[in-house]
Amino acid sequence: MLSSQELAAFLAVADCGSFSAAAGKLGRVQSNVTARIRSLEQRLGAVLFDRGRQGASLTPAGETLLKRARLAADLLAEGEQAVRDQAAGRTLLRLGSMESTAGARLPAVLLRARERRPDLQLQLSTGTTDELIRDVLERRLDAAFVAGGTDLEALQAQPVFEERLVLVEPTGRPAARPLLAFRQGCTYRSVAERWLRASGRAPVEIMEFGTIDGILGCAAVGLGIAVLPEAVVRISLHAPQLTVSPLPEPYGSSVTMLVSRRDDGGRRPLVELLLEAASS
């Protein structure tokens, strides 16, 4: 079994690419880091790093260990944080959400959740559906609101909201051809691309954005079109300059799901709290 110090040394060398940089990151002398890695390699019977003038790079055995080592480090950090929160009388929920859901749906949900559990501390992260599912799977998030759910056995997904997807165009002016969208991994972008292909309008140029406001602002001035939930368009400051049209089925609707790990029983009451708050 890896000790916490061996784990820290292994991850530091893997991240920094050299023993000297890893030692600096950990605040230790290089000989200490080198000795811990050598001891670990001897115990495992495998070389974890190729050493050379350019630094240290992972061997196939090192790559095999890396993913599991990161998971172990995440679990240790999660356990430490849980103990601190419990000692301080706090209940921490690391929640993920698509940006569209965070803006249009979550404020009321989180308010109701806090009213029911005043001790609830929230950390909210936004991302694409693919990114959020990966973060829940790898325990960086306790739960996340995503589009369409997942078929991964380790995760459970429960429906929360049904969104009406619309084509967003500028009012009173022709729209440029580009599709304004989030980066790859966004379900709404995938729906838009499938619809454009089916309607004979693909391929199209795609302009990637990091925010809903950026997408809608550029759509309002005619830089392109977008496909988004109607609810998020209606509350935008840019709504008066935008025209929305429903997408035909099977592209016109999307179910937002709350995903969480099946084996995380300790967080189950908080997931149930969110589901109750969302249905109120």
TrEMBL record:
Gene3D superfamilies noted in UniProt: 3.40.190.290, Winged helix-like DNA-binding domain superfamily/Winged helix DNA-binding domain
Pfam families listed in its UniProt record: HTH_1, LysR_substrate
GO molecular function: DNA-binding transcription factor activity; transcription cis-regulatory region binding
Segments traversing the membrane: none
Residue span, HTH lysR-type domain: 1-59
Coiled coil: none
Keywords: DNA-binding, Transcription, Transcription regulation
Entry-linked PROSITE patterns: HTH_LYSR
Keyword Transcription annotated: yes
Entry-linked SUPFAM superfamilies: Periplasmic binding protein-like II, Winged helix' DNA-binding domain
Family listed: Belongs to the LysR transcriptional regulatory family.
Protein name per its UniProtKB record: DNA-binding transcriptional regulator, LysR family
Organism: Tistlia consotensis USBA 355
